[in-house]
Predict the structure.
Amino acid sequence: MRRIWRFALLATAAIAVVAAAACTGGKQDENGAPIEVVGTAPPSELMGVRISPPLEKPDVVLTDQDGRPFDLRKETDGYLTLLYVGYTNCPDVCPTHMADIATALKQVPAEVRERVKVVFITSDPERDTPEVLKRWLGLFDPTFIGLTGDKETIDRVQMALGMQPAGKQDLGNGQYAVNHAAYVIAFTPQDNVAYTVYPFGVTRETWVNDITYLVEKGVDSAG
Amino acid sequence: MTSRLVFQRLLAPSMLTLAALGALALAGCGGDGDDTSDHAGSHETPTAAASETQIFELGSIRIVGPSARANPNPTSALYMHLENSGSEPDRLVQVTCPLAGMTQLHETVVEGATSRMEPVEAIELPARGHVDLKPGGTHVMLMELERPLEEGEEITCTLTFERAGSVEITAPVRSYAEAAEESDHSEH
């Protein structure tokens, strides 16, 4: 019940914002008072899964969806960086994670949104060229960053993140599946370290709460 | 032998909340002199009216709300809810879709920080029970698609159960984004 109420409250706040936006444009309500935009209440706690020890952001240069070199640490420094390792022929978990993040990002305030970068590193560089990554990420949000590279470099990134390096699983007829991350990793904008991860199935409420929290407050490393 | 029924989508409680709040929001705008005649008296949200849940029946088995996902790659996933009102268990053993050169039943396996798909031989459907093929759980993987699936189209597939036999279904192709908007995984 508690969760339902919290969702309802979030939904109410979101709709109040939409309603207010729809009603603005110099308009006033029937009593002549300017319409006030009601935001969501500031988040009070992190809802993601805490990891220990925290993860350092991998020190790696890969190739982005436009074919340009992308220095992960340099390009994402100071941003809340939501990192996922997956592949675009993954029909189920990977696209659902991306769609969930894209949906949540539409619900956070603009000043929070602009401090977030979403990075998708392929675990299937053989099929996921920059062009393929760009087209696929466009399904969710054209600002999402897609990275590819040689298998050795990507293996190293996966191991640095505590994952098994990608292995192909033969499905027959030349088709194959590739293992990928079980969760999205959130590196804070304040110290570029990840204290929380987001497994498949976390609610939109969790995403909206934690994205806002991590951008505004970060994580007290002692906490 | 088989029948195809089409129902209006049953609104989940959260959607009802949203619809009610949406109506309030519109009502709130109404007082400022805007032309609201298009909205007056309407209690339906367009999204609720536009989407429908398809139900197919095969003996004591009901296949509820099958849908596939739009993807620029020649792969996709097919999801559905299966119900068995019979006193015998059954198993979904095969799915074929003319557009897909290859299909497999897959489940998602998580080991520590890593996740992967595993082919399974069949999906068990208990007697007087149900099973959900849904994101992060079990799905039908469509491979070698003749062309990438696009949002808004409908695909045809044949499901084969060990006991009940085969039934042809149609499944709308939805975007991952739309599906995510609708679901907040609250049942996990």
